């Protein structure tokens, strides 16, 4: 549990600070400024930059982000997002934290050891993904969740992303990027009813770019770890 800030490269400092500046501007420029949304966004981008390095602090901050985002989703009655992050992403982030601590990289103890997916992993993900999606869909339907189709898609992408994070796979970031696209659509629809949610759209656009960087970073380290 070292200080992850000390290990940031110049590129990562640029990505992190650039993301923070854009988030600050987009949130402070709106007439309906919401402190909780700003704090959640800053927590989220910081979590992603640390996760891109394979540092366990990325998962610790994801736990905090899940709580904050769950509250934001509750206020707009996006029950799917609230249930997904509080009931699924949060506990899986706790599990990932434990898993990452137990599996440090052999050539750099500050980073997690990346794992290649086996056929058993893929089959288990497919089966559990179908079950989780079906269960959550009926829950969302009973709550009359707005935009239920996109909310359901968000659930399956979040589940796979969180599962791959726990499994220490480089492809976790790809699925989080896919989930970001779904969330952008969801919050654009919410913003049409309440412009106060426009900053949330900007926030997830920044998350998308950070997740794509995370994937590239993990693939590079995966090659480096394979050479050891």
UniProtKB/TrEMBL annotation:
It is found in: Cell membrane. Its main location: membrane. Coiled coil: none annotated. InterPro entries: NMN_transpt_PnuC. The keyword Transmembrane applies. One of its GO terms (cellular component) is plasma membrane. Keywords: Cell membrane, Membrane, Transmembrane, Transmembrane helix, Transport. The chain crosses the membrane at residues 12-29, 59-76, 82-101, 122-139, 145-164. One of its GO terms (molecular function) is nicotinamide riboside transmembrane transporter activity. It is a multi-pass membrane protein. Pfam families: NMN_transporter. Belongs to the nicotinamide ribonucleoside (NR) uptake permease (TC 4.B.1) family. PANTHER family: NICOTINAMIDE RIBOSIDE TRANSPORTER PNUC (PTHR36122). This is Nicotinamide mononucleotide transporter. The lineage of its organism: Bacteria, Bacillati, Bacillota, Clostridia, Lachnospirales.
């Amino acid at each position: 549990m070292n200080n992850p800030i000390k290990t940031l490269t110049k590129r990562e400092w640029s990505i992190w600070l650039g993301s923070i500046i854009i988030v600050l501007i987009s949130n402070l420029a709106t007439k309906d400024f919401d402190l909780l949304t700003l704090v959640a966004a800053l927590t989220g981008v910081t979590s992603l930059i640390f996760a891109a390095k394979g540092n366990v602090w990325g998962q610790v901050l994801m736990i905090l982000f899940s709580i904050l985002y769950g509250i934001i989703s509750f206020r707009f009655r996006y029950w799917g997002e609230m249930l997904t992050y509080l009931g699924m992403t949060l506990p899986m982030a706790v599990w990932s934290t434990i898993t990452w601590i137990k599996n440090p990289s052999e050539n750099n103890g500050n980073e997690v050891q990346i794992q290649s997916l086996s056929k058993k992993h893929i089959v288990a993900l497919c089966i559990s993904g179908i079950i989780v999606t079906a269960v959550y869909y009926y829950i969302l339907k009973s709550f009359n969740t707005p935009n239920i189709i996109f909310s359901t898609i968000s659930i399956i992408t979040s589940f796979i992303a969180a599962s791959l994070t726990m499994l220490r796979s480089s492809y976790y970031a790809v699925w989080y990027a896919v989930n970001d696209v779904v969330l952008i659509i969801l919050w654009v629809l919410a913003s049409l009813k309440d412009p106060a949610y426009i900053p949330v759209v900007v926030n997830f656009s920044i998350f998308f770019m950070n997740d794509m960087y995370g994937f590239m970073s993990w693939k590079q380290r995966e090659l480096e770890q394979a050479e050891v």
